[in-house]
Design goal:
about 260 residues, oxidoreductase, globular, Rossmann fold, 7 strands, seven-stranded parallel β-sheet, about 10% strand, oxidoreductase activity, NAD(P)-bd_dom_sf
């Protein structure tokens, strides 16, 4: 039992399935009171009923106040987990402005809006925990989907900024950065996901395990795939070599299309 989680009031967005549902189940199993959010109201209600939680369906950007009210006026842990993976088109193709805008709104601005709502209360009481489901794409990148890669970099940068700005005032921040996870998003990632992510894909429950280990160790960066740390070091140490390797992967993918 993680003592900092027991009896906590928790919100998990995008929790109708996948990583979000796994997080909601784990928090509930640890004794937390959990609000389950998802755009799909039926899926949110099903998970909430399963774990004895509360369903607050809707757009993750707009439900923070409602979720807080459902929990009696307080949120202790907020899991910004809802995300989208969109292909914004390659140079020379028609630009999918709508796909870019949606990715930016869900993958970045929903986190910003949630923090804007939560921080005044958290700073006043000197505690609060913000969990951002990012992706290894936010540390590295992902072939075939510029909007996802770019906005996940943004999500990671915002989580970093929150941590460095407020950690001395009692705010805990965790950035979860897995590679492939067996979810609907992986199924929708097409041939690029099959090439890069599926061979080492893990279960959503493994991501929840990694988060709770990170909470116990008070770590900001949560890497369910430990090898991502080596990739991240290689990228920083020799960007050109790393980009050359990624370009070879791009060419391999193009050859299968």
């Amino acid at each position: 039992m993680v003592q900092t989680v027991q009896d906590a009031k928790v919100v998990v967005t995008g929790a109708g399935g996948g990583i979000g549902a796994a997080l909601a189940r784990r928090f509930a199993a640890q004794g937390a009171r959990v609000v389950v959010n998802d755009l799909d109201a039926d899926r949110a209600k099903a998970v909430a009923e399963e774990i004895g939680g509360l369903a607050v369906p809707g757009d993750a950007s707009t439900i923070v106040a409602e979720a807080r009210d459902a929990l009696g006026g307080t949120v202790d842990v907020y899991c910004a987990n809802a995300g989208v993976g969109r292909d914004g088109g390659e140079p020379g193709e028609p630009l999918d402005e709508q796909g870019w805008a949606l990715s930016w709104d869900v993958n970045v601005m929903a986190h910003v809006r949630a923090a804007h709502t939560l921080l005044p209360d958290w700073l006043e009481r000197g505690s609060g925990r913000f969990v951002s489901t990012v992706s290894a794409a936010g540390l590295l990148t992902m072939i075939g989907t510029a909007p996802y890669s770019v906005t996940k970099h943004g999500a990671y940068a915002f989580a970093e900024w929150l941590s460095l700005t407020y950690r001395h005032r009692g705010i805990k921040v965790h950035a979860i950065c897995p590679q492939g996870v067996r979810t609907d998003m992986l199924d929708a990632s097409g041939s690029a996901g099959a090439l890069v992510l599926e061979p080492t894909a893990i279960e959503p429950e493994d991501v929840a395990d990694a988060l709770f280990r990170g909470i116990e160790d008070d770590r900001f960066l949560i890497l369910p795939h430990p090898e991502v740390a080596e990739y991240y070091r290689a990228r920083a140490g020799d960007p050109d070599r790393w980009l050359t390797g990624m370009n070879r992967l791009q060419q391999q993918w193009e050859a299968t299309r």
